[in-house]
Amino acid sequence: MKKSPTIFYQSSLPRAGSTLLQNILHENPTIYSTPTDGVLELIFASRSNYTSSPEFKAQDATQMKKAFLSFCREGMSGYYESLTDRPYIMSKSRGWGIHYGFLNEIFPQPKIICMVRDLRDVMCSMEKNFRKNQHKSDNILNWSEMKGTTTIKRVDTWMQSPPVGLAVERLNEIIRQGIDKNIHFVKFEELCSNPQTEFKKIYNYLGLPYFEHDFNNIKQYTQEDDSVYGIYGDHTIQSKLTPQKSKAKDVLGAELCKAIYKNNEWFYKYFNYKF
Questions:
Q1: In the prediction, which pLDDT does 3 show?
Q2: Whole-angstrom Cα distance, residue 134 to residue 129?
Q3: Phi, psi (5° rounding) for residue 115?
Q4: Which of 81, 148, 210, 268 could bridge 273 with an S-S bond, Cβ 3.0-4.6 Å?
């Protein structure tokens, strides 16, 4: 009988190298890395119907819970089995981390990787995408209502809305609830500067033998139609890992960088980012 694949999870901040990590891991012939994965949405939809449908409510609650979790478990396994014969899956979705409790009931003690990055550089990346796509209309900018008309306003909007604001809020809650002790965090900056060291840590966390990756010739395996995500959709990766120099002060200005640091001091203290 064929063994179901072992599923690992990536739940990272936007603009923090999550696609890059997926493609490097996919170089390992035992790991299948997904693009942005919709499996979480499938089991969420199922959970909604399971919770509200009278057919489930009318039966024994203990039996129905057991059956529903088995449905999710087998459904997820079957989904990935149809995509690959590789024994390990790395599923990428920003929602895995905050929904650790639900996931833990389906697959106990799930292993989740979270890529993080200095929020000043996350905002810098968002602003650079905004500026290079002036030929396209973006809902963040509204001159008549004076919304999104300055870099400061745009950064404030991004920090208060999906995808960035939501991801940061979820990360804060993950730490507050103590879920962070079950997650392996990887700083984008350290991945680029010391890739071998960081990947050895990743493999150790996953419980897999280390695979010797070629960090100077990274191939793009995952494919996504970035037009679906608007002007901020950018899932094309660099082919070589090199140390990354921050451009945040050049793009955002020193005062705005200072404000981002001050408004998110918990983040900078937890991940030991310096001002």
A1: 83
A2: 9
A3: -85, 135
A4: 268
For 43, counting Cβ atoms within 10 Å of its Cβ (0-12 exposed, 13-18 middle, 19+ buried), the class is: buried
Bridge partners for 6 per DSSP? 88
Phi, psi for residue 219 in degrees, rounded to 5 = -95, 150
Q: Residues near 35 by Cβ (< 8 Å), separated by ≥ 6?
A: 19, 22, 92, 222, 223, 224, 235
Q: Please identify which residue in the block is written with the tokens 């919304």.
A: 147
pLDDT, position 226: 52
The two structure tokens encoding residue 266: 């918990």
Q: What is the pLDDT of residue 228?
A: 57
How far apart are alpha carbons 106 and 99 in whole angstroms?
11
- Residue 83 tokens read as 């995509």
**Dihedral (CA of 248, 249, 253, 256) sign:** positive
Task: Sort 252 into a burial class: Cβ within 10 Å, 0-12 / 13-18 / 19+.
Answer: buried
pTM of the predicted model over 0.85: yes
Residue 17: partners with Cβ closer than 8 Å, 6 or more residues away: 115, 117, 188, 191, 192
> What integer pLDDT is reported at residue 224 of this predicted model?
66
What end-to-end distance do the CA atoms of the chain give, in Å? 55
Q: Which residues of the chain have pLDDT under 50?
A: none
Residues β-bridged to residue 185: 114
Helix (H, G, I), strand (E, B) or coil at 82: coil
pLDDT of residue 84: 97
Amino acid at 246: S
Residue with tokens 């979270």, as numbered in its chain: 114
What tokens were used for 170? 């979820």
